[in-house]
C-alpha cells in the first residue's frame, strides 16, 4: 500500500511537456551599437511578422498546428533580458498578445556582444521549458561578431550536439556609426562561425527598410518542416572566428592609450 501511494505521488508530481511543432528561441541584439531607433525597428518588425498572415499560416500548417516561442534581448556576458517567456502560439490572439509584449518594451541597450553567452542561455532555456518540439531552433540576430565571453564556434558546435538548429540574421546596414566594432563580411562570419544544424541558414539585412520583410521570411522558413537555404555563401575553412575578440582588444587598447 505504501509503495502504491509513493508511485501515485511521484506520478502526480511529474510535469509532462506539451508537444509543439517548433521550440523557437528569438535572440535579438540589444548591444550599445544599436541605436534606440534601431531597437524599436527590431521590436516592431518582430511584432508585425508574428501577426502576419504568412507566419500564422505557417504555424497552422505544422503537424500539430502550434509552436512555443520566447523572445530574449542579448548583449554582453550575463546581459540577457527575457521580454517574452516561453509561450504557446497557436492562434491569432496568442500572436497578438506576444506581439504587444514585444512592441511595448522600451528598455535600453547594454554593453558587449556575446553570442556564445546567449547560446548557453538558450540551451539551458530549451532544457528547462515545459515544451517538447519536433525541432528546437535558435534564431540569432545581431550587428557584429562575438567579442566577449567564450569563443562562439565551439559553443555553436556544443549546441549542435544537443539537436539545436541555429539560424542567423546579420544586420549589415551601411553608414553605421559603430562600424569600428563590426566587420564588412558579417554574413560570412555568421555562415562560418554561428549557424548550424539541418537546414540552417543566414538571411542578411543590408538596409533597415528590409528588416520587417526579412523577419517575416525568416520565421516562415523556420516554421516550415524542411527549411530551404535562402542565401548561398562562399565558405572557407580558414575563416577567423575570433575576429570580434581581436577587434574588441584593439579598440579597448586604443581607448586606453588615448586617455
Which tags fit this structure?
42% helix, alpha/beta, single chain, 259 residues, five-stranded mixed sheet, disordered C terminus
Query: Level of helix content?
Result: 40-55%
Q: Radius of gyration, rounded?
A: 19 Å
Instruction: Give the strand content.
Output: 15-25%
Report the strand count.
Answer: 5
Q: Give the SSE order as H and E letters.
A: HEHHEEHHEHEHHH
Average pLDDT metric: 84
Judged by helices, strands and strand pairing, the structural class is alpha/beta
The biggest sheet, with number of strands, parallel, antiparallel or mixed sense and barrel status, is: 5 strands, mixed
Unreliable spans: 10-14, 230-234, 255-259
Structure description:
The protein has nine helices and five strands. The N and C termini lie far apart (76 Å). The protein has 259 residues and is α/β, with parallel strands linked by helices. Residues 10-14, 230-234 and 255-259 have low confidence and may be disordered. Helix 5 (115-128) runs parallel beside helix 6. The chain has a five-stranded mixed sheet with strand order 3-2-1-4-5, sandwiched between helices. It has helices spanning 2-13, 36-50, 53-60, 92-103, 115-128, 152-161, 186-194, 211-223, 243-257; strands at residues 18-29, 67-74, 80-89, 131-142, 164-170.
Short description:
This protein has 259 residues and is α/β, with parallel strands linked by helices. The protein has helices at residues 2-13, 36-50, 53-60, 92-103, 115-128, 152-161, 186-194, 211-223, 243-257, and strands at residues 18-29, 67-74, 80-89, 131-142, 164-170.
Amino acid at each position: 500500500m505504501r509503495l502504491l501511494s509513493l508511485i501515485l505521488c511521484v506520478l502526480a508530481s511529474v510535469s509532462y511537456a506539451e508537444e509543439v511543432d517548433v521550440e523557437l528561441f528569438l535572440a535579438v541584439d540589444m548591444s550599445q551599437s544599436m541605436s534606440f531607433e534601431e531597437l524599436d525597428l527590431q521590436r516592431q518588425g518582430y511584432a508585425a511578422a508574428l501577426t502576419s498572415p504568412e507566419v500564422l499560416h505557417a504555424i497552422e500548417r505544422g503537424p500539430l498546428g502550434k509552436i512555443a516561442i520566447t523572445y530574449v534581448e542579448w548583449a554582453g556576458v550575463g546581459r540577457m533580458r527575457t521580454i517574452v517567456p516561453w509561450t504557446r502560439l497557436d492562434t491569432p490572439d496568442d500572436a497578438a498578445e506576444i506581439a504587444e509584449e514585444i512592441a511595448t518594451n522600451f528598455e535600453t541597450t547594454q554593453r558587449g556582444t556575446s553570442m556564445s553567452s546567449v547560446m548557453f542561455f538558450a540551451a539551458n532555456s530549451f532544457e528547462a521549458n515545459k515544451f517538447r518540439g519536433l525541432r528546437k531552433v535558435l534564431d540569432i540576430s545581431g550587428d557584429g561578431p562575438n567579442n566577449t565571453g567564450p569563443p562562439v564556434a565551439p559553443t555553436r558546435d556544443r549546441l549542435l550536439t544537443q539537436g539545436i538548429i541555429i539560424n542567423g540574421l546579420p544586420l549589415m546596414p551601411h553608414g553605421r556609426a559603430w562600424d569600428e566594432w563590426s566587420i564588412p563580411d558579417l554574413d560570412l562570419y555568421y555562415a562560418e562561425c554561428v549557424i548550424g544544424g539541418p537546414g540552417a541558414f543566414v538571411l542578411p539585412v543590408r538596409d533597415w527598410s528590409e528588416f520587417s520583410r526579412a523577419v517575416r521570411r525568416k520565421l516562415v522558413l523556420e516554421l516550415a518542416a524542411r527549411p530551404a537555404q535562402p542565401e548561398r555563401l562562399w565558405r572557407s575553412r580558414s575563416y577567423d572566428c575570433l575576429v570580434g575578440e581581436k577587434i574588441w582588444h584593439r579598440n579597448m587598447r586604443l581607448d586606453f592609450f588615448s586617455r
